[in-house]
Amino acid sequence: MPELPGNERSRRWRTGLLLAAVAALPWGLITAGTAAAADYSQAAGNYAGSQIEAHEGVHGGPDTARADVTGDQTLGHDVSGHTGPVDWAAASGSGARFTYVKATEGTGFVNPQFGGQYNGAHAAGIIRGAYHFARPDVSTGAQQAEYFIANGGGWNGDGKTLPGAVDLEYNPYGDSCYGKNPADMTNWIADFTSTYLAKEKRSALIYTSTAWWKLCTGNTSRFGNTDPLWLARYAPQVGELPAGWDKQSIWQFSRSGSLPGDQNYYNGPMGRVEALAAGPSAAAA
C-alpha cells in the first residue's frame, strides 16, 4: 500500500482521536444535544388550548349566568406569558376563585412571567396552580415532570396551591401526536404522571380534549381513576368525556370572558376547589 501524504495521515489521526473521545463520553451527554436542538420558537405563544382552538374550533359557550346563580360551578381561569401582565386584584373582584399559570414547556422553556403571575394570584387570595405544556417529542415524560417541578410546578400543603397539570394537545410544531403511536403516547403520559406523583405525593391533572385523546392515545381509560380531568371544549355543553372519566374536575369553556386568559369552571362549589388544594384526604370528599 502506498504511503499516505503527511496531511492525510494527520487528518485521519485527528479523526481517530475525535471518535475515540466521543465513544468515551456518557450516553447522556451525547444525547443531550438532541434536546438542546428542540424547536421552542413558538413556546412563548403556546398556552392551554391554543392548538385545540386551532384544530377543533369554537362552537359557542355555556350559560354562564345560570352557573353563577346556582353555584354548582366555581369560576376560574388560566394564564400564560401570552396573556401579559395580570391585574390580580381586578381578577379577584371579577369572580376569579382559582387559576392555573403556565410554568414550562418541554425541557427548554420557562414562562418568563411565571413568578409574577403565580405569586400575584396568591397575593390576591386566588388559589393557584401551575401547568406544563407537554412536548412528548423532545424528552421523556419523567424528564419533563422533573423540569416542571424544578421550575414552579411543585405542590405544597398551604391550602392555596393546586396540584400541577400536564397540558396534552395538538403539536404546534408538526404531527398532531408528536410522532408517537397511541401505546407510546400512553406510556409517555404515564411516565410523566407517575414521576409527578412520586415526587409531589399528588396526582397531576390531565388537561386535554376528547378529540385529541382519542386520536393520540386511542382513547385509553388508563388515567380515569388516578388523575383529575381538565377538559377543553368551547361549546354550550361539556360533551363527551375521554374514556375512563365519568366527570371532569375543570372545564375550560371559553378563550375569553370576564377574566384574563381562558375561562374555566371547576365542577362543584368553592369547597371542592379548596379540597383539591388541601390534599388527598380533603380532595376525596
Number of helices: 11
Unreliable stretches covering 5 or more consecutive residues: 17-36
Main beta-sheet annotation: 8 strands, mixed, barrel
Q: Any idea what the radius of gyration is?
A: 22 Å
Instruction: Please tell me what the overall shape is.
Output: globular
- How do the strands of the widest beta sheet line up side by side? 1-2-4-5-6-7-8-9
Helix content: 25-40%
| Total strand segments | 9
Distance between the termini: 83 Å
| Helix-strand category | alpha/beta
Mean pLDDT: 88
Work out the oligomeric state of the chains in this entry.
single chain
What share of the residues does DSSP label as strand, in percent?
A: 15-25%
N to C succession of SSEs: HHHHEHEEHEHEHEHEEEHH
Describe the structure.
The protein has an eight-stranded mixed beta barrel, surrounded by four helices. It contains eleven helices and nine strands. With 285 residues, it is an alpha/beta fold. The radius of gyration is 22 Å and the shape is globular. Helix 7 (141-153) crosses helix 8 (182-200). The protein has helices at residues 6-24, 27-36, 50-56, 64-70, 88-93, 114-123, 141-153, 182-200, 210-217, 270-278, 280-283, and strands spanning 74-79, 98-105, 109-110, 127-133, 165-167, 205-208, 229-232, 250-254, 262-266.
